[in-house]
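Re: your question about Mannan endo-1,4-beta-mannosidase

S., sorry for the slow reply, the queue was backed up all week. Below is exactly what I fed in.
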Amino acid sequence: MKTNLNKTNALLSLFMITGHFLFAQIDKSATRETKNLYRNLKSISKEHILFGHQHALEYGHGWSNEPNKSDVKLVTGSHPAVVGIDFSDFSGRSREQIKKAKETLRKNVIDTYERGGITTVSWHFNNPASGGGFYWKDSISAPSMSLIKKGGSHHEQYKEILKTIADFANSAKAKDGKLVPMIFRPFHEFDGDWFWWGKKYTSREDFIEVWQFTVSYLRDTLKVHNFIYAFSPDNRFNSESEYLERYPGDDYVDMFGIDNYGDFGRDGKYDLENGIKKLKIISDIAIKKNKLAAFTETGLESITNKNWWTEVLLQSIKKENIKLCYVLVWRNDAVSLTHYYAPFPGQISVPDFLQFYNDPYTLFENDLINVYGTKFSLKNTAK
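Result:
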């Protein structure tokens, strides 16, 4: 049985009405729906966690481009509460390819909003100053964060790329005429060395400067007011100070995230104690700064541990009074027989995933009522 959040939201509304803003959202001009989502995500994290899946509606295990379909829905009857998309095709492509990508994603985010779900956006940003795509490739890739910052050789080009993102954000209008809120997560896993914006190729000062410019240009110049901004390194930290080493400041981040596959079973290796410790770090920072926290990426490729959902993931996120608004697992490739992170009918972890789905702590799309409104609640019926 799922509990509702009416009492929690009534208290939050009181804070808003009396002018005592409980949450430090960085865009004071954010749309009403974006502010409501931000507030509701915070209240969700007190007692529950939303489940998310990357590219859930675009394709799945053995299929692609089928309306209102997801592998998660095939298994549970509900789409994930959080659906991941990517802005990877918004640069380094032809004008026609960019236009087609925008149309496809616009329909995706609007459909998700109108069903009552939530969209999060990653950005596998193709290198604007060299070949190599978004990964770092020796002898091909340029360390381009220094080139796209203000005064850099590719700064004007970077501004044009951000205009493409702003155009999409400002055109994602639902049938009710409202702009769809999105959680935008740029430059993720920046503490690694696999992306061209990674720590090995970017100074701390350049990373912070580019992040601050990105947020300011989108929010203040291009008037994007339907983004919640998420900061998410990989798992290469062991303390709050290490996590915040490249933090751009409280005026430029709404959500603290972590991408962590390594501690949760990648290559057959588990270090759950360490993984829980890192989740606790970001949860504590978010509480201290009155912001959001989320497990922005995780998963076990091929889900070879049939009880991974309850014995690994669920037990971990319930430990240490951790407060996270969502957890997202990576994509299910349409062609590969092994590259998948959510179950599909017949996969060995389906029974365990159904236990995970039915646990009162986890929330899926069908559990949410009015997540963009001031009277958000959860369905009070058993799944």
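The first strand starts at residue 49 and ends at 54. The radius of gyration is 20 Å.

Happy to talk it through on Thursday.
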